[in-house]
Specification:
The complex is a heterodimer of chains A (115) and B (115). Chain A is mainly β. Chain A has no helices and eleven strands. The radius of gyration of chain A is 14 Å and the shape is globular. The chains are: A mainly beta (115), B mainly beta (115).
Chain lengths: 115, 115
């Protein structure tokens, strides 16, 4: 089945130690998103790629970076994780077209713990 | 500017009774509206979507929602709750043309089901 895959499902990192989360998709969607979701809150959009074009949300900290080497893969890099970065990180994809908003397909998420 | 308000942070119903989760939106354009469900430690799953076709939208697992432009509402309903419906529900609004930065999540409604 076509899907959005996130690895690992659980990630533990140390304070200040760089960490990379990965997302892959078999849907061939042109848009990929990264969200941060803290407990009992709605997902917060960090950034997204529209094809190769990177779009950063204004309030996303510089500590968060992303790479999209090809259509299928997208990475979230946290350069120096702080305790406040502990959260669930969700990857999503969608197929965008002119004047139409399509639904997003979400991966299962990676839960990041910072010690 | 667009916004979405989920009027109840927590709804509790008995198994077998109707479910109503309320969502109001504000949008300058003809919006696309979505309901997603999130079970604990899982990603989000699309329940249903409205994209300017029929105002009564049927989704998965017996859920449906009605788009009411005059009331700027998109409430989610189900005739008979099941224990497996216990989860977090998010109402999402998206303005066209395609732009991920205009996807707005509601704050979520936690649905509890009493035996």
């Amino acid at each position: 089945d076509a899907m959005v895959i996130q690895n690992p499902r659980y990630q533990v990192t140390q304070f200040g130690k760089p960490v990379t989360l990965s997302c892959s998709q078999t849907l061939n969607h042109n848009v990929m998103y990264w969200y941060q979701q803290k407990s009992s809150q709605a997902p917060k959009l960090l950034f997204h790629y529209y094809d190769k074009d990177f779009n950063n949300e204004a309030d996303t900290p510089d500590n968060f970076q992303s790479r999209r080497p090809n259509t299928s893969f997208c990475f979230l890099d946290i350069r120096s994780p702080g305790l406040g970065d502990a959260a669930m990180y969700l990857c999503a994809t969608s197929r965008e077209g002119q004047g139409v908003s399509y639904e997003q397909y979400f991966g299962p998420g990676t839960r990041l713990t910072v010690t | 500017a667009q916004s979405v308000t989920q009027l109840d942070s927590h709804v509790s119903v008995s198994e077998g009774t109707p479910v109503l989760l309320r969502c109001n939106y504000s949008s300058s354009y003809s919006p696309s509206l979505f309901w997603y469900v999130q079970h604990p430690n899982k990603g989000l799953q699309l329940l249903l979507k409205y994209t300017s076709a029929a105002t009564l939208v049927k989704g998965i697992n017996g859920f449906e929602a009605e788009f009411k432009k005059s009331e700027t509402s998109f409430h989610l309903t189900k005739p008979s709750a099941h224990m497996s419906d216990a989860a977090e529900y998010f109402c999402v609004v998206s303005d066209g043309p395609s732009s991920a930065s205009k996807i707005i999540f509601g704050s979520g409604t936690r649905l509890s089901i009493r035996p």
